[in-house]
Design goal:
The complex is a heterodimer. The radius of gyration of chain A is 26 Å and the shape is elongated. Chain A is α+β, with helices and mostly antiparallel strands. Chain A starts with a helix and ends in a 23-residue tail after the last helix. Chain A is built from 3 helices and 3 strands; from the N terminus they run H-E-E-H-E-H. Chain A has a 3-stranded antiparallel sheet, with helices on one face. About 5% of the residues of chain A have low confidence. The N and C termini of chain B lie far apart (about 50 Å). In chain B, about 70% of the residues lie in helices and about 0% in strands. In chain B, helix 2 runs antiparallel to helix 4, helix 4 runs antiparallel to helix 7 and helix 6 packs antiparallel against helix 10. By secondary structure, chain B is an all-alpha fold. The mean pLDDT of chain B is about 95. Chain B is built from 13 helices and 2 strands, in the order H-H-H-H-H-H-H-H-H-H-E-E-H-H-H. The chains are: A alpha+beta, B mainly alpha. Chains A and B meet through helix 1, strand 2 and helix 2 of A and helix 4, helix 5, helix 7 and helix 13 of B.
Chain lengths: ~110, ~300
Amino acid sequence: MHTQKKEKQKKQLKIIDMSNEHKEWPLWEVFIRSKAGLDHKHAGSLHAADAQMAIENARDVYTRRMEGISIWVVESKHIHASNPEEADAFFDPAQDKIYRHPTFYNLPDELKHM
Amino acid sequence: MTQVSFEASFQKKIDEEIMIEPQDYMPDEYRKTLIRQISQHAHSEIVGMLPEANWITRAPSLRRKAVLLAKVQDEGGHGLYLYSAAETLGITRDQMLHQLHTGVAKYSSIFNYPTITWADMGAIGWLVDGAAIMNQVPLCRTSYGPYARAMVRVCKEESFHQRQGFEIMLNLAKGTPVQKQMAQDALNRWWAPALMMFGPLDAVSPNTAKSMEWRIKRFTNDELRQRFIDVTVDQIRLLGLALPDENIKWNEERGHYDSSELNWDEFWNVVKGNGPCNKERLATRVKAWEDGAWVREAASAYAEKRKTKKAA
């Protein structure tokens, strides 16, 4: 009887597990500022139930060796990205405008401090 | 573009050393190979916590205990970096865990061996993490961006793992005769399994050729294994321990150490689930997952409750 009960409990646990597959904690992207004066930089991602947990987990996972002084987290689903398949056309406008670079201009060597 | 031109432009990128990122086109087989390799790697980090966790409460000093805790915590983190990298390929975390728990997915066979003395903590850090680093350093340049970035992080952190292991071995080797014997015994037991970590011989490795072509791998199993033997033999001498294989001999012509053939029957037997600790390791992981179910649910419920409160 006792073992039967245990088996039943076990089965129930399995069922809970399966249903859990549909409510995985959401995915978060983690951004870390390594020191004052620098930008936050993408460090990686993790799962967490809410923002606070995401920040605490990010601290434990991505700053174990003092890699950061500030953490941003954003749910991955809120990130919008440019389409890599259209990258060539998308970034094309910058391709033929080398005059935007200082080295484009022919100036005499005697010119200093410019 | 046709399928053929997609694949041609993919291979061209690979050949030009341009990294592949999650949203880029990739052949199905490339994606599948990566999911298999990265998730196996992640599972190895997670299961790899178990043999060492066995000694945390019995570490011989507070210093050793703090170090071992930090190492095991790192491994949990490494598992997470790798799971995250695999998730960018379209598999979910729960699917991967399900594959681990049902035995569909594999993890490194080395973790199916028992840790019976404290010297095993030294041998694991030195040899097992050493072999892992030898494998992982070239993976920092693997062709899939998220995997490469995860490996950079892992390699940075893993260096102390190997050094603390060597330090344990050094202290034991310079200790009492009994301590030295303990170190020798650990070396003898872990040597062959560590060499097997590099995978089957190239001649019978089904995935090597394609993985090299796709630059997922940069060196073959045999190349990395030989490199590991070459650097480790000198380290064994530095410890003042006896070589664990009587056939280790410098080969002038090859410029490498020769060594015994490994027992590949044992390797495949452990891969198939019949190693000394396969069942125990898997049972521990499944129990942790099931015992943690209420925590996962409670956290979700709490987050949901706060969300509705905020909205009200």
